[in-house]
Write a structure and sequence with these properties.
about 150 residues; mainly alpha; Ferritin
Length: about 150
């Protein structure tokens, strides 16, 4: 069974996403809504990680020895200015998208296993991740005109 591989991917993706939300929030503290919302969303991702732990204890987690083509890499720093904010929000969107599709894959396994506990965790966390993606998409739309047209 390869569920443990995807649980490992999900666990590392969530940890990276929470750290990235905190990094972007701190790096763009001059944007109060970004700072506050990123801190809130990081906390929600932390709760997703906590909800995943009983499942990880039951099924295990491991990483394949084959190198991944795409993996969640944390943000080393944030970029400055309006274009920097836009790019940082896009990075968060990419990381959240990876977590979202991984929840979907794990959810399919939960259905196949008829594991009600895992399915409940997935359902709750998928909804939360969808809200994160919605906020990011909305904030990107808000930042884009300022960054791409008005900023010099």
């Amino acid at each position: 069974m390869h569920l443990a591989t995807y649980l490992g991917l999900l666990h590392s993706s969530l940890t990276t996403l929470a750290d990235a939300f905190r990094q972007v929030g701190q790096g763009h503290g001059d944007e109060p809504d970004v700072w506050h919302t990123c801190q809130v969303l990081a906390g929600r991702v932390d709760r997703q990680t906590e909800a995943l732990l009983p499942v990880v204890r039951r099924y295990g987690e491991h990483r394949e020895t084959e190198p991944e083509r795409l993996h969640a890499t944390g943000l080393e720093s944030t970029r400055g200015g309006p274009v920097g904010l836009l790019r940082d929000l896009q990075d968060l969107y990419t990381l959240a998208g990876l977590a979202d599709i991984t929840w979907t894959v794990v959810g399919q396994a939960a259905q196949g296993l008829r594991d009600r506990e895992l399915l409940d965790v997935v359902t709750s966390c998928e909804q939360d991740t969808a809200r994160q993606l919605t906020w990011l998409r909305t904030r990107i739309k808000q930042a884009a005109p300022q960054a791409l047209i008005a900023a010099r």
